[in-house]
Design a protein that fits this description.
Structural class of chain B: alpha+beta
Strand content of chain A: 15-25%
Oligomer: heterodimer
Strand content of chain B: 15-25%
Number of strands of chain B: 10
Order of helices and strands of chain B: HHHHEHEEEEEEEHEEHHHH
Order of helices and strands of chain A: EHEEHEHH
Largest sheet of chain A: 4 strands, antiparallel
Radius of gyration of chain A: 13 Å
Distance between the termini of chain A: 14 Å
Radius of gyration of chain B: 22 Å
Distance between the termini of chain B: 31 Å
Structural class of chain A: alpha+beta
Shape of chain B: globular
Strand order of the largest sheet of chain A: 1-4-2-3
């Protein structure tokens, strides 16, 4: 049985108070603007100091207020990150705006059902 | 048989060993522990380096521009190329090049122009579509993807799973049943272009190998012309089987390379680390683990070189390849496991490559024919063909 393809958890406000309570585990995350449009899909890999918490703390400090986020704890953060990017591309015809500025060199093509 | 490297082989081994230690490992230290690719600029620079070494495209036959290195020497070099974090599945991050799909050398001239030569030039990447949801160890019976004759071509319907690189490939070779009544004599090999209508990469399949993923494919009324048949109709099983046998030798060599690297780490750690006022190396429990590592590595190395030597001489090597694959994947797994035990807590962390090797080495007991199938192949040799 296939795992869930899309990350569909509820959005949470991208603020220091919220992200400070995140786990230090590895995984993937999405950032959306205030309207809920995904602008970035990121990964918290094993070189981060505190996994998702440090990555989202960095995102919160660099992005304007009003952004939102959701996370998925996942040891397979790399392959899951590629998967989320490919699914987004299949669903919307393009990468999220901030990923499109620096796309991965060899992103594959998926046609999910 | 004497498997001591000749002077020329040793020179090549030393060259590749230096390359791994001076070029690959320092770059790797800056990458994510599960990375499978180098930065494109580093990749391009290192490809130029391996070309200058005369070792680029090491597995490519001489008539297609390869460096004409025999299979025994290639095994010795493959053992070296695997000795870094990503080395089991991405030896030297692919900087030694290669066709990546041995079957495509069997193509006719038209197919060589369209697929083989662009692949050798690095312009196209292939995938290998054999395994299906119904099973992978027994392709002759498990293949349920059908290809039916229609409009001077063939219509494919079915699914494939655990297919590496299909989402990024420009083409792949896909095995389908063209005669349901003939078992293994009813399978045909097709070349499928990525954009062919009816060919879909449906999803990513995540595995223990978290550096890279496999994919699931669907063929839904996917029409291809006769020009896309690789080899002959109903003779695809031989194409698949030949690859599965040949692939077992380099597959074993990769396991040995990683086992050697893990073993060397364990030896160094045992000499350095003290517990209860004594170096680990002075503890009999640790010494015995290191001895068992040494035996597993030497055993696998011997059988793998024996299989390669038989292949080099043009002798049958199916049983030897099975023994090599079995001893290297199972022994290699034990070596990495013991090395982790010797390292204690540090052995479990992503700070060291051991945990990646441990996960990836586990796959090797299943990939390219599981241990049980290798034992079946060896048992047939021992008991005679009437066992079939």
């Amino acid at each position: 049985m296939a795992l869930r393809l899309r990350l569909d958890k509820p959005w949470r406000p991208l603020t220091a108070e919220v992200v400070d309570r995140l786990p230090g585990q590895l995984g993937v995350y999405q950032i959306a603007d205030a309207k809920g449009t995904i602008v970035y899909i990121g990964q918290a890999g094993a070189r981060t100091a505190f996994g998702l918490r440090s990555e989202l703390q960095r995102e919160a400090s660099q992005r304007a207020s009003g952004h939102q986020f959701r996370v998925e704890v996942n040891q397979q953060y790399r392959t899951r990150w590629f998967e989320l990017l490919m699914v987004h591309q299949a669903d919307h015809g393009s990468l999220p705006t901030d990923n499109a500025k620096n796309p991965p060199p060899a992103l594959g093509r998926l046609s999910p059902n | 048989m004497d498997f001591e490297p000749s002077a020329e082989q040793q020179m090549l081994i030393d060259q590749v060993r230096r390359y791994v230690r001076e070029e690959i490992i320092p770059l790797e230290a800056k990458l994510d522990p599960d990375a499978a690719e180098l930065d494109p600029a580093d990749q391009a620079r290192l490809v130029e380096k391996t070309k200058a070494m005369g070792l680029y495209g090491i597995d490519i036959p001489k008539e297609f521009g390869g460096p004409d290195i025999d299979i025994v020497t290639r095994v010795l070099l493959a053992i070296e190329m695997a000795q870094h974090r990503a080395g089991l599945y991405v030896p030297c991050y692919g900087t030694f090049g290669g066709a990546g799909l041995a079957q495509i050398f069997e193509a006719n001239e038209d197919q060589k122009e369209r697929y083989l030569y662009p692949t050798l030039r690095g312009e196209k990447k292939p995938f290998f579509g054999l395994t299906e949801p119904s099973g992978g160890s027994d392709p002759a019976r498990a293949i349920q993807t059908r290809a039916e004759r229609k409009d001077n071509g063939w219509v494919l319907n079915g699914a494939k799973i655990f297919i590496s690189g299909a989402d990024r490939a420009q083409y792949g070779i896909v095995f389908a049943r063209t005669d349901a009544s003939k078992g293994r004599a009813g399978i045909t090999c097709f070349i499928i272009d990525a954009g062919t209508p009816g060919f879909h990469v449906r999803r990513v399949v995540h595995t223990l190998r978290s550096s890279s993923y496999a994919t699931e494919l669907e063929f839904k009324d996917c029409w291809v012309s006769d020009h896309q048949i690789l080899g002959e109709v109903n003779k695809g099983f031989a194409v698949a089987n030949d690859r599965l046998t040949r692939q077992r030798i380099p597959y074993a060599a990769g396991c040995i390379g990683v086992a050697i690297a893990a073993h060397e780490m364990a030896v160094e750690w045992a000499k350095m680390r003290s517990t209860f006022g004594e170096k680990l190396a002075n503890r009999q429990a640790i010494q015995w683990m290191l001895v068992d590592n040494e035996i597993d590595i030497r055993t696998a190395r011997h059988f793998t070189l024996e299989a390669a030597e038989k292949a080099r001489r043009g002798l049958p090597f199916r049983t030897e390849a099975a023994i090599a694959k079995l001893t290297a994947s199972e022994g290699g797994g034990r070596v990495v496991d013991r090395a982790m035990q010797i390292h204690g807590g540090m052995g479990m962390t992503k700070d060291l490559p051991l945990e990646r090797w441990y996960r990836e080495m586990r796959i090797r007991r299943v990939g390219e024919g599981p241990s049980e199938v290798q034992r079946m192949v060896i048992a047939r040799e021992i008991l005679g063909s009437n066992l079939r």
